């Protein structure tokens, strides 16, 4: 005796039959796919209730294909997004990425770039979870560009900053510097974000030092001081100045002292520690330490 089918499986089979059925004299293919799409959606939600997330993703994908055939771009985008979330819940990252990409495609086609940016950010985070850092960088930058053109500057800056952090992590220091300076420039326009500029400029300078380029670090620091007369007096600028001097004089002890003094008041985060270790290694230590 065959095992009894679940309610979700029954709905899914019904949807498949409806989508494959021939069109009668008094019905259109559009109405057929609309009805099939509704059934696939019901099946997908039933699979979610059963915690069968891969099957739910498959059903939402089938729904999306039906919506496409009905030229319902908005509904297709929403169905692909539901599929992506289901695949993500099932830890099927490749299928989730494919569904997210389809979501973005339909959102951009309909000019919904703010929503497309949200989903592109989801893609970046999924790449990050699967340790595909370069792909995550690219996705964060694309999301940032779309946020920026929609005048969502705060969201754009968050994406550009995340991209910069990842660029630095994988050694693309010049790209990181470009992104940090972009975020700093965009932050200067608002009193609410001006306080963050010194952090972005510090990170930019640390990337130059990690890239064995104290000349660029010093030149950029002078330019930052010209852009903002208060920068030179900040703890961030003083740390950067001390590090540049230590690197140029080959003084690892002075480098460690500058880091230690800064850390006593403002705790160094993991990103800074990693970049500082790389910068200190340029002095010539095989196993650099910040202590």
From TrEMBL:
Topology in the lipid bilayer: Peripheral membrane protein
Pfam families: SNAP (PF14938)
InterPro entries according to UniProt: NSF_attach (IPR000744), TPR-like_helical_dom_sf (IPR011990)
Keywords: ER-Golgi transport, Membrane, Protein transport, Transport
Superkingdom to which the source organism belongs: Eukaryota
One GO CC term, this protein: vacuolar membrane
A GO BP annotation: SNARE complex disassembly
CDD domains per UniProt: SNAP
Membrane in keyword set: yes
Gene Ontology MF: a single term: syntaxin binding
Localisation: Membrane
Protein function: Required for vesicular transport between the endoplasmic reticulum and the Golgi apparatus.
Family affiliation: Belongs to the SNAP family.
Protein name in UniProt: Vesicular-fusion protein SEC17
Organism annotation: Phellinidium pouzarii
